[in-house]
UniProtKB/TrEMBL annotation:
Coiled coil: none
InterPro entries noted in UniProt: Uncharacterised_YhfT
Pfam families: YhfT
Protein name: Transport system permease protein
Positions of transmembrane segments: 52-79, 100-120, 132-157, 164-181, 201-219, 240-261, 281-302, 309-334, 369-397, 409-431
Key word Membrane present: yes
Protein source organism: Isobaculum melis
This protein's record includes keyword Protein transport: no
Keywords carried by this UniProt record: Membrane, Transmembrane, Transmembrane helix
Length: 437
């Protein structure tokens, strides 16, 4: 095993260990739904069994049904596959020093295991009689183009159809104009091409912020929360060293292109579109500021990825994990110290506070459609004439299931399942692939 691989495993092992320990101590959890439950456990209102069961119920399905399938399709680990699992590991580990040790060891083993295991799965798929990995990579194809749409969708959710439609038109015009005229020849004959997707996203984000800032207010909702929950805010600040360290590890792992914070930036990174991936991650960070800060103020529990700007640091400093760790830790520290000030700022601009929820909603909607289309494209490439039938059928049937997969996961899961099925059919002589591996 070469040195670079050892460094990667050490980083992801340390990330798994520290995140599990933070979850065990109730300092930080990744699942937004689990964060409000942690104080109930810390205050003795619920027991260890209850919080462990809650963590498992909230996170396990997302790890198996969403995080891992999306990761296999792109060969970069979606961070949900690690940090949702460390929530479970930390919650299930016992209280006290013994629990901290168990959480750290199991968390480290899990981090290393999923890294090696994911590659093993990819290698296994590649050795199958019908190699469907090239087709599976198509799952992320629509995501690369679709990610620039979400600001217009967010504007429509927050400000109505008319402003959303105007924004969509301007974003579309930018996309067309940059694709048509975005290549320039510099002195010396060097050509420089602007990213059409990146520029259109930038235009959409500028419009989104302009509309949001225009919503004025003089409320003090978050500041009132600050006065009520100051003790919980101080609890977060007291653990700034551990939180800064985990922020640094997230940035370091991202800089090594081991993890990504969301499917959009993950697919962009897989395509080598690093600037666009950083911009997408930055937009996601803006959307998570209100959610993470508000839940932190109320619960005294932070997120191991903070407001997710640590992923931006990792992307911008790719290939330099040491510097990424330092800068990522600094970003996390600044976030924690800004808790009070951000609460005041969000009160002055309630439109910005509300914008965060609409960004998250629009991103999820765009991803649901893009991953479903991508899954259908990949499935049709594997089995022409069957793929679209398969994915659309599973998507609709899933909605009637007692425990359905999240909509985001249906496309990738359906494509992986069909890839395995066509291999079985090939072995028994019932399927003839377009190209047999």
């Amino acid at each position: 095993m070469d040195t670079s691989k050892i460094i990667e495993l050490l980083v992801v092992g340390a990330l798994g260990a520290l995140c599990s320990i933070l979850a065990n101590r109730g300092i930080a959890v990744f699942n937004d739904g689990l964060r409000p439950v942690v104080p109930e456990f810390l205050e003795g209102k619920i027991g260890k069994k209850e919080i462990a069961a809650t963590s498992f119920a909230l996170s396990f399905g997302l790890v198996i049904g969403f995080g891992i399938p999306v990761s296999i399709g792109a060969s970069i680990i979606l961070v949900h596959s690690i940090l949702l699992a460390t929530d479970i590991i930390g919650s299930w580990s016992p209280v006290g020093k013994k629990g901290i040790i168990i959480a750290g060891v199991v968390g480290a083993a899990y981090g290393v295991g999923i890294t090696l295991g994911l590659q093993a799965v990819v290698d296994l798929f590649a050795k199958m009689p019908v190699d469907f990995l090239p087709s599976l990579a198509m799952v992320g194809t629509p995501v690369v183009v679709a990610f620039s749409i979400f600001p217009a969708v967010a504007i429509a959710y927050q400000h109505g159809f008319k402003k959303g439609a105007i924004s969509f038109a301007l974003v579309g015009l930018t996309l067309f104009a940059v694709k048509k005229f975005g290549t320039f020849t510099l002195s010396g004959g060097t050509t420089f091409t602007l990213s059409a997707e990146g520029m259109s996203l930038l235009v959409g984000m500028i419009l989104m912020i302009i509309f949001a800032v225009g919503v004025k207010g003089d409320g003090d909702a978050n500041q009132n929360l600050m006065s009520i929950f100051m003790e919980r805010v101080n609890r977060i600040k007291k653990n700034w060293i551990l939180l800064s360290a985990v922020g640094g590890l997230v940035s370091a792992a991202t800089s090594l292109l081991m993890i990504a914070g969301d499917p959009i930036s993950l697919n962009l990174l897989s395509d080598g579109k690093y600037s666009e991936a950083a911009l997408a991650a930055f937009a996601r960070g803006i959307g998570f500021i209100p959610l993470v800060f508000s839940t932190a103020i109320v619960t005294g529990v932070y997120s191991p990825a903070g407001t997710t700007f640590v992923f931006v640091v990792g992307i911008l400093l790719r290939g330099n994990p040491i510097l990424a760790f330092v800068v990522g830790a600094l970003v996390m520290f600044i976030e924690i110290m800004l808790l009070n000030g951000m609460a005041k700022g969000l009160d002055k601009f309630p439109g910005v506070r509300e914008m965060g929820e609409h960004i998250r909603t629009s991103m999820n909607k765009v991803l649901e459609v893009a991953l479903l289309i991508g899954g259908a494209m990949a499935s049709e490439a594997m089995a022409p004439g069957i793929g679209y039938f398969w994915v659309i059928g599973l998507y609709l049937l899933n909605r009637t299931a007692k425990k359905p997969l999240v909509d985001l996961a249906v496309g990738p899961v359906a494509a992986i399942a069909l890839g395995i099925i066509v291999n079985i059919l090939y072995l028994v002589g019932l399927f003839t692939p377009v190209v047999a591996g």
